[in-house]
Specification:
This protein is an alpha+beta fold. The chain is built from 8 helices and 10 strands. It has 3 domains: about 110 residues, Helix Hairpins, CATH 1.10.287.1260; about 50 residues, SH3 type barrels (Roll); about 80 residues, Alpha-Beta Plaits (2-Layer Sandwich). Helix 2 runs antiparallel to helix 3. About 15% of the residues are buried.
């Protein structure tokens, strides 16, 4: 008797629990339609889950490809970075489309409508962000700037650490990270010290006194370029006589290096050598001078007739 009652109560509880689960499931799967978009709580959860899985899959796929091609020395590091980035973006794009399909049950026509709405928003206020994103793809495909390149943009100079979807990270010698919008790297003038030929020519201007021996200055500058670290012997150093300045003879020392990213240090080392050798050879570096013409002084008043106090007073007035 007791056992039959227990079975009946268990069956009643099971039916109640089944009914509760069915009601909950019906709530979760209840669909709401907004135009061509149909959404429910369960489909929205599935869409979010697909996005999360896609992000992990994109990161894992990118890391796997990077490990596979890291040991292939014939592939440029910048090209490896581009391949990994593109694979990551493709996986994310496919995952987002699948998530939209699962969450909102939309077709390609609806996706086109969504992108049309986004284009309107871009036209009103997001054009700069869209320009940065488009420039990011240009940098990845065209590769005018690559990972590890030494670049100068405006007054900033540093090494390219990463090229992201919207910005590029440049690290200076002071270990300061500069965040540069990708559109600036595409539209503005950028000096890439690592692009193409690994050699680069460095020019060092110098002015000497107008009574200096030109041949001695030329030989001294050539000697200053010898024995400096990262300066090539071929092509050899050259000296150019630029012009007759207002108060100096202007020269330029031209040297070649295979480490263009160290151009600042190379200039510093050569300047140290130039200063030392100029002192040894008594070559003067001129500085601008100014002469004052005093009018209204009587002609019969000779400077040697002035007392020392008058001269000091006049000198004080001139300095003032």
């Amino acid at each position: 008797m007791l056992s039959s009652m227990g079975v009946q109560m268990a069956s009643i509880l099971l039916q109640d629990s089944t009914g509760i689960v069915a009601r909950i499931w019906s709530y979760l799967t209840q669909q709401f339609t907004f135009g061509r978009i149909t959404v429910s709580a369960s489909s929205l959860f599935v869409g979010v889950l697909v996005v999360v899985v896609t992000l992990f899959a994109a990161r894992w796929t990118s890391a796997l490809i990077e490990r596979r091609i890291a040991n292939r020395r014939h592939i440029d590091p910048g090209l490896r970075y581009t391949i990994c980035r593109l694979v990551k973006y493709v996986v994310i794009m496919v995952g987002v489309l699948v998530a939209l399909k699962q969450a909102f049950a939309i077709d390609l026509t609806s996706i086109a409508v969504i992108f049309t709405a986004l284009s309107v928003g871009i036209g009103f206020g997001l054009q700069y962000i869209a320009s940065d994103i488009a420039s990011g793809f240009i940098l990845l495909f065209e590769r005018p700037v690559r990972i590890g390149d030494r670049i100068t943009i405006g007054e900033d100079e540093g090494d390219v650490q990463s090229i992201n979807l919207r910005t590029t990270i440049v690290t200076t010698n002071d270990r300061i990270a500069i965040i540069v919008p990708n559109s600036k790297l595409v539209s503005q003038r950028v000096v890439n010290w690592s692009y193409g030929d690994p050699r680069a020519r460095i020019g060092i201007p110098i002015g000497v006194a107008d009574d200096s021996d030109i041949q001695l200055v030329t030989d001294t500058l050539i000697e200053a370029a010898k024995g400096v670290d990262n300066v090539l012997t071929e092509p050899p150093a050259r000296v150019q006589f630029l012009k007759f300045g207002d108060y100096s003879l202007d020269f330029r020392l031209l040297v070649w290096t295979n480490q263009p990213r160290r151009h600042a240090q190379i200039r510093s080392d050569i300047n140290y050598r130039i200063a030392k050798l100029f002192r040894e050879h008594s070559i003067r570096i001129p500085y601008p001078t100014q002469e004052f013409l005093l009018k209204g002084v009587p002609r019969n008043l000779e400077p040697n007739l002035l007392s020392d106090n008058d001269l000091s007073d006049d000198a004080t007035q001139v300095r003032q």
